[in-house]
Design goal:
alpha/beta, 7 strands, 2 helices, five-stranded mixed beta barrel, two-stranded parallel sheet, about 25% helix
Length: about 160
């Protein structure tokens, strides 16, 4: 219905009382929901938190193992979602552009939180008149992906 929509969320793995079945349900949900940007942290006790007193504490090693499993699934989903953008054009905010952008640069799309999400690696512009300027927007066509990053040609 809205192909440009980007959904992000953060989850906790290993909350006291969490079973393997419940954790598997979470993994299934992330796959089905196709969350673009999902993060996860392993539960850790916090001074004064009521959760510290709940029964069924999950061992620290298992909490961390579940976090890692979650992140592997989240990365699969995210990479597949990014690949769907190949061929599309989008507005990119330029964050860095060495040599006045003639050698390309690094930017981010509307979907990318700075220092959290991936980036858009901007290839050197093919038109000599195209310049990439830090802090300005440019249109770019997505040509490939690289992990959590998009690779794009300025247009």
């Amino acid at each position: 219905m809205c192909p440009e929509l980007v959904v992000r969320s953060t989850f906790i793995a290993g909350f006291p009382g969490e079973t393997e079945e419940e954790f598997q349900h979470l993994l299934d949900f992330v796959r089905e929901a196709q969350i673009d940007r999902a993060g996860c942290f392993a539960y850790s006790p916090v001074d004064g938190a009521a959760a510290n007193e709940l029964p069924g504490a999950v061992p620290a090693e298992l909490r961390e193992e579940r976090r890692a499993r979650f992140m592997a699934v989240a990365e699969e989903v995210s990479a597949a979602r990014l690949r769907r953008r190949i061929g599309a054009s989008m507005q990119v905010l330029v964050d860095s552009a060495p040599a006045m952008g003639r050698k390309g640069g690094i930017g981010r799309s509307y979907a990318d939180a700075p220092e959290i999400d991936g980036t858009v690696r901007l290839l050197p512009p093919q038109k000599l008149s195209t310049r990439l300027a830090v802090g300005e927007f440019t249109r770019a066509r997505i040509v490939s992906t690289d992990g959590h990053d998009l690779v794009a040609e300025p247009i």
